[in-house]
């Protein structure tokens, strides 16, 4: 039972109730450090349970703050509170009503939407952090936790693609393939459909690398932009990709969004096949 010495605020929600609790705490802090007792009822969908809470609150001279989007519950709390002369505060209702006057569609009236939006946000942030941590072959152990691993020679858009896909909530690692360095063994433990090979036209790659050298103030005749060296690297990556049996996409003169859409298609198809 609530403490008789403190005012009591009941928080009622057909979702978690965090929004109402935040508002209650913000207001309570204006009253001598907010010495109130808070009782929260989350995921409420039962009318009879709602009536019980209203009776309990009325008997304890309390108030109710609520975030209810289900119409039947909103009707009950208003009618019952009026009968018991119980103070109630609709935390979301006025905002919903105001939005309805300016929006071209009706509200969806689905409990928990904001929480699902938050979950999407945090998944996106986690994916971005994963992409940064596992960029350019860092920490090969992370390959096994990745949704997708991009492999290819230097300057095949691995990093931009990783970040683009991370914003689509995919955990992406990328790995440069270099003839002098054996790929980590973890790469060969992955299913082929979790790896994407990236290739590019040799002459175009040379131009891109020359531009990169120029930006860094390095000599254009460096081995990095040597056409024979580039051909050797591309042949090496073809051998590795054949061994992996992974899908391969040519990124020559293609926008990041175009290549990313193809990768997303492969990921979705793989997920469908796994569910069958």
Number of helices: 9
The CATH top-level class label of the largest domain: Alpha Beta
Tally of distinct domains: 2
CATH topology of the largest domain: Rossmann fold
CATH level-two architecture of the largest domain: 3-Layer(aba) Sandwich
Kindly report the spatial arrangement of strands forming the biggest sheet. Answer: 2-1-3-4
General form: elongated
The residue fraction in helices comes out at 40-55%
Main beta sheet? 4 strands, parallel
Walk me through the structure.
The longest helix has 21 residues, at 113-133. The strands form two sheets. A four-stranded parallel beta sheet has the order 2-1-3-4, sandwiched between helices. Strands 6-5-7-8 form a four-stranded parallel beta sheet, with helices on both faces. It has helices at residues 18-28, 47-59, 71-84, 93-102, 113-133, 158-166, 202-216, 227-244, 256-275, and strands spanning 8-13, 37-41, 63-67, 88-90, 148-152, 172-176, 195-199, 248-250. The model has no long low-confidence stretch (mean pLDDT 85). It folds into two domains: 8-111, Rossmann fold (3-Layer(aba) Sandwich); 116-275, 3-Layer(aba) Sandwich (Rossmann fold). The protein starts with 7 loop residues before the first strand and ends with a helix. Strand 3, helix 3 and strand 4 (88-90) form a beta-alpha-beta unit. Helix 5 (113-133) runs antiparallel to helix 6 (158-166). The chain is α/β, with parallel strands linked by helices and 276 residues long. The protein has nine helices and eight strands.
């Amino acid at each position: 039972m609530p403490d008789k010495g403190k005012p009591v605020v009941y928080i009622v929600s057909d979702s978690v109730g965090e929004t109402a609790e935040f508002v209650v705490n913000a207001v309570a802090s204006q009253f001598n450090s907010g010495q109130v007792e808070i009782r929260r009822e989350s995921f409420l969908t039962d009318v009879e349970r709602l009536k019980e809470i209203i009776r309990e609150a009325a008997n304890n001279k309390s108030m109710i703050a609520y975030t209810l989007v289900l119409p039947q519950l909103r009707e009950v709390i208003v009618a019952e509170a009026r009968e018991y002369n119980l103070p109630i505060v609709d935390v979301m209702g006025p905002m919903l009503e105001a939005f309805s006057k300016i929006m071209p569609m009706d509200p969806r009236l689905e409990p928990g939407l904001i929480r699902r939006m938050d979950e999407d946000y945090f998944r996106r942030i986690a994916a971005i952090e994963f992409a940064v941590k596992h960029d350019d072959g860092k920490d090969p152990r992370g390959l096994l936790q990745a949704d997708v691993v991009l492999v290819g020679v230097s300057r095949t858009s691995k990093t931009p693609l990783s970040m683009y896909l991370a914003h689509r909530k995919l955990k992406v690692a990328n790995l440069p393939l270099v003839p002098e360095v054996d790929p980590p063994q973890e790469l060969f433990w992955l299913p082929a459909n979790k790896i994407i090979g990236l290739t590019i036209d040799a002459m175009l790659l040379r131009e891109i690398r020359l531009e990169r050298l120029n930006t860094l103030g390095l000599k254009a005749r460096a081995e990095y932009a040597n056409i024979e060296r580039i051909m050797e690297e591309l042949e090496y990556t073809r051998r590795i990709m054949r061994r992996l049996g992974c899908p391969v996409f040519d990124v020559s003169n293609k926008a990041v969004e175009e290549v990313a859409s193809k990768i997303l298609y492969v990921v979705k198809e793989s997920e469908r096949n796994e569910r069958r």
